[in-house]
Specification:
Elements lengths: L1 H10 L2 H18 L7 H15 L2 H10 L15 E4 L4 E3 L7 E3 L4 H11 L5 E4 L3 E4 L2 E4 H12 L5 E4 L6 H15 L4 E6 L3 H10 L4 E6 L19 H23 L3
Parallel strand pairs: 1-4, 1-8, 4-7, 8-9
Antiparallel strand pairs: 2-3, 5-6
Helix pairs in contact: 2-3, 4-9
């Protein structure tokens, strides 16, 4: 009974309703033998099914996540700094903490874990900016303010302020490394983002050790893997992340940043 109720609740979700309506419409058209004009809507429904009802998107993103080997904290060496890229949080004017966690929050928790394990005496936070009423709010500043006020760290904390993109983060870290004489750093970001990030930082002349985290591939998650299931918006999110990184890599190569 519980399974039936969960299935019914899943079917009334917006994505499931869209998937069902288009599917039923296609079946109705086929039975009425009005198929010549079904190529495009049929292809769209099949693509939606592939992305939201199967692990296809996870398979795509695994090609990015598996490019850099996974690491164990105990195997990581002592370094001079930990660099945590932005994308896991955003400043907020309404949250009591002053910031809001996003899907990439594993970047921050991984960096804080490395700090707690005394892997480096310096933690550097990156991130973008959020314009609001004539002012630009920095995600790195928001998290830095919170950590300084509420957490006792084993490392110095430094915010990079507002960064335009990953390349800008690499340029700022390179300048800081030159200024402070840093020669080896731990680099923390999402596993699917790590190949482009690693290439960008090394192109900037920084010696970094990658610490990938925030794995999106469902094959790496706990629980049973169902190869066919009702539509899930997570498939679209994972596909969006894969597409963002794929296009981003092309752009970075074109600009000579990697």
């Amino acid at each position: 009974m519980t399974l039936i109720l969960k299935t019914l609740l899943h079917l009334i979700q917006p994505l499931s309703i869209i998937w069902l309506v288009i599917g039923l419409w296609l079946v109705r058209r086929i039975f009425r033998r009005r198929s010549p004009d079904l190529w495009f809507p049929g292809a769209a429904w099949l693509l939606l099914t592939l992305l939201t009802c199967t692990p296809f998107a996870s398979w795509l993103i695994s090609g990015l996540e598996d490019q850099v080997p996974r690491v164990k904290l105990a195997d990581l060496p002592q370094t001079e700094a930990i660099v945590c890229l932005g994308g896991g949080f955003e400043p907020s004017l309404v949250e009591p903490s002053g910031f809001k966690l996003q899907s990439g929050a594993d970047r921050l928790t991984t960096a804080l874990t490395l700090t707690a394990e005394s892997k480096a005496p310096l933690l550097i936070l990156g991130g973008g900016g959020y314009p609001h009423e004539g002012r630009v709010y920095s995600e790195a500043d928001a998290v830095s303010d919170y950590l300084r006020a509420h957490v006792t760290l084993k490392a110095e904390l430094l915010s990079m302020g507002v960064c335009k993109d990953t390349h800008d983060e690499a340029v700022k870290v390179a300048a800081l490394a030159k200024e402070r004489g840093l020669t080896r750093l731990l680099l923390v970001t999402s596993a699917n983002h790590m190949p482009r990030t690693l290439a960008t930082f090394r192109k900037a002349g920084i010696n970094v050790i990658p610490v990938p985290c925030n794995y999106l591939n469902s094959l790496n998650h706990l629980g049973e893997l169902h190869y066919l299931h009702l539509p899930s918006p997570r498939g679209l999110e994972v596909f969006g992340a894969w597409l963002h990184e794929t296009v981003g890599s092309w752009v970075y190569r074109w600009r000579g940043w990697v």
